[in-house]
Amino acid sequence: MKRVNFIKTTLLSGVAFAVLPQLSFTHYQYIYTRDQLIGKGNFDFSGTDFKMQKDTFNSFIKMKVAAIKENIDIEVVSAYRSFKQQKIIFEDKYLQYTEQGLIPSEAISKIIEYSTIPGTSRHHWGTDVDIIDANTPRPKNVLETKHFHGDGPYCNLKEWLSRNANSFGFYEVYTDTLNRKGFKYEPWHFSYAPASKPMLQAYKKLDIKKILQEENISGSEYFTDSFISKYKNENILDINPKLL
Ligand SMILES: [Zn+2]
After folding, report:
1. Whether residues 137 and 73 fall in one domain
2. Residues 107 and 5 grouped into a single domain
3. Which residues contact 78 (CB under 8 A, 6 or more apart)?
4. Residue range 143-177, pLDDT digits in tens
5. 187 near 158, Cβ under 8 Å?
6. How many angstroms is it from 186 CA to the middle of ligand 1?
């Protein structure tokens, strides 16, 4: 009798030990710091030239291996990007457009056709990638929609991704959907949904206006309440519904 009890207790604690690390891991996955959400924090990154969160990276590699079998060599041109890197991109464009004579609000509107305001990029999360096919002659500017359509060099990639990316957890973010607002169509930008969906939920709770004002970004005096609310609804949330 005693022996049976002992076995039961041992089994139970065995189960507890087996389950607990997993529980705490899952728990950890869904808690993000403000800094992580805005590109100033650290993750347990994988990848050398291009960094991604571990789960995103592992799934990406599986997808890449599958694509190679069909003669497509998926190459990453951008993955994780820090706040600092995004700030340089944004402020360079701001300077360029205002020097060309655009007023600040016009310059900002033009920038946010394709580029994000630092602190608001999905590339800050280590879950999103911009990809092309390395197995075809490389055009001068790789990230142009025309390369993914017609007889463009990335048509095979585009076609393969639309058949297979979802099964690896990857979804196109800025789809070519009629009446979608926010960022323009980006056939190269994919997000690993299991990791990015909870991050978006956490991100939605941040006070974006306050964060952007604190960061002293060029043009931030034009980030009014109505601008921020529109940016949030259109640029951040008007994306592929599979990622919401
Ligand atoms: Zn991108």
Report:
1. yes
2. no
3. 50, 123, 129, 130
4. 999 999 999 999 999 999 999 999 999 999 999 99
5. yes
6. 8
